[in-house]
């Protein structure tokens, strides 16, 4: 008897689950085109960003991309549209923004090429950071829609007027600091080493010994002493101004 309420509960749960699945199924056809991409067709693509070759975009400024498409299939493709999204660079699944779609409806025949332009706008209030941008072209063949994601890479969004890449600058600062710290450490360990102490210590002792220059005691009898004496004699002879 105690099993009965539990049984009822699981039946109820089952019903709820069924309903959820049913609702999800009803929702499927209205899904966003980027959520469930059609299969890839036989095209090859190439792209470039004429205004931002370094892929450092500016928040609030439209970005133009030129897409070259070559039809490698044996049937016509009707290039329908391009769409894109801005996603987290760390986790692609969390998206921040869907770029507006642009429609073309241009047919490209087998072995022919076509160039189209697509512009997207990184939102003005987007915090400067790295993001992943995915751009997808949709095209239609006799057997239905196909899609090719022709760009799916990390890009950098900068603030307007932020011409310096602060992140890069920061890295430079860290790099320079590390080099200096390394140099200092190397210098300190050399200074403490016995080899250095022996070499430089001797020199220092020599310098000390030379310092008492007026002291005749230690040069007496050396060639330097004779030289000094001669020099002094020559100096007193050759200076008529000298008054005794
Ligand atoms: C944006 O695209 C994603 C798929 O990448 C989709 O799940 C989401 O519903 C779209 N958002 C809007 C507002 O269209
Ligand atoms: C391309 O597709 C669009 C939308 O399906 C259609 O209106 C247009 O007629 C097609 N173009 C050609 C040349 O088939
Ligand atoms: C883009 O690349 C990420 C991996 O970096 C991948 O998870 C994602 O499925 C790709 N998106 C598309 C639309 O190809």
From TrEMBL:
What's noted about domains in the record? Shows a remarkable charge distribution with the N-terminus being highly negatively charged, and the cytoplasmic C-terminus positively charged.
Listed under GO cellular component are:
endoplasmic reticulum membrane
Q: Which superkingdom? A: Eukaryota
Record key words, sorted: Calcium, Endoplasmic reticulum, Membrane, Signal, Transmembrane, Transmembrane helix
Q: What does this protein do?
A: TRAP proteins are part of a complex whose function is to bind calcium to the ER membrane and thereby regulate the retention of ER resident proteins. May be involved in the recycling of the translocation apparatus after completion of the translocation process or may function as a membrane-bound chaperone facilitating folding of translocated proteins.
InterPro entries reported for this sequence: TRAP_alpha
Signal sequence bounds: 1-25
- What does the UniProt entry say about where the protein is found? Endoplasmic reticulum membrane
Q: Which residues cross the membrane?
A: 169-187
Q: Does the keyword tRNA processing apply?
A: no
Which protein are we looking at?
A: Translocon-associated protein subunit alpha
What is the protein's quaternary organization? Heterotetramer of TRAP-alpha, TRAP-beta, TRAP-delta and TRAP-gamma.
PANTHER family associated with the record: TRANSLOCON-ASSOCIATED PROTEIN SUBUNIT ALPHA, TRANSLOCON-ASSOCIATED PROTEIN, ALPHA SUBUNIT
